[in-house]
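Good morning C.,

I know you're traveling, so I'll keep this short. The sequence:
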Amino acid sequence: MGTEPILKLLLSMSFPAMISMIVQACYNVVDSIYVSRIGEEALAAVSLAFPIQMLVVALSVGMGVGINSGISRKLGQRRIGDAVFIAEHGLLLSVIISILLVIFTFLFVRPFLQLFSDPGPTLTMATGYAEIVTYLAFGGVICQAGFAIMQGSGNMIQPMIGQLIGAITNIILDPFFIFGYFGLPKLGVNGAAIATVIGQILAMIYVMGIVFFRKKNVLKLNLKQFKFKWNILKEIISVGLPSAVMQGIGSVMLSGYNLLLANFGTTALAVFGIYFKIQSFIFMPVFGLAQGAMPIFGYNYGAQSEKRFMETLKYGIIIAVTIMFIGLLLFNFFPETILKIFDASDSMISIGRVCLRTISYSFPVAGICIIISNSFQAMGKAYISMIASILRQIVILLPSAYILSIIGGLDLNWYSFVIAECVSLVYLLITFIHIKHTTLDKFSEGALNGQRP
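The tokens, ready to paste straight into the viewer:
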């Protein structure tokens, strides 16, 4: 990570993560396609449960960022022992998060969903789905810790294989549990949740085997000699918590947006649910690119190589914007084709056509924001990314969506995504320029003066 040409390194590190993210998006979409065959109420139920599912993802991703960033920076500083300590404490944190999610599910999931729907089939299905994916979230959470440990040390292939195991298992099991094939009970929406957690648990088993028993690992973990150190756990949390909050804000945004859309009916909710599933095909490869870039950012930040850090940023932005522009074209020219995959009614197509086209205008800007935010996380400055996320999704998006819906109804409401991304980009650019002048440029000055990190 300190000598390979950056473009070649970035592609080699990112490609496995991008593939695994695309597969992840695939099984999310397959879930929704199967659920759409049950009916529009079932699709709306999954949309209502999605913010809770995003909360689980937020905690997992935040923890993973803290582990990945910490390990890559320690390796850049040649402190391998400290990197091992971070990996071991990261696994402990994943177990703690899994236990907390069980408590959260018991206390809050059902009351939360009752805020969005009257008693009936939609609420019943949403509650069942959400309870399954959060009570049994340990597979996905512990698995994410394993992914982060390997990615932080430069191993991107095994996390890809783990993602493939989870996704393919989910896709295969979905119809069996949803529709009751081969004598299995017909579980409907609950069946989709069961298929998801089984896939996560199998991926966890595979990943943990690699983390502990693969001889080629850069980091050698030995839990028998584990000694708890609060300062190490604190270091992971200090970087990971802002990232978790940043992801969790997405859950808050979705909840607020669902409340707003509920005024326009169940069809609007179902369309927004479809959008969020389909947009993952565009965003997930960019998130995979960011995953591959993070250890490169972190390593070269730790090694105080300003040139390689900036090269990673440049190529990351170019690739991200290219992917996002392709998504913009697809959403603008083929919205009806996309919606018909979900057995959309005429009213869903009418609403969805405007929704997909309008929100897609924000994609290229979002690509730039993702890569710049990722560079802050790798530097251990995840709080900057968190502020950008709060600004985008809470301060700008929800209020502008509310105002636009009053002014121009549902069609104008979708432009809130474009406004929010543009404001976020301005903040990130201003902040990055400041950090470059105060920190990164000093790395170059140190190199010119013959200083070593």
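Safe travels,
E.
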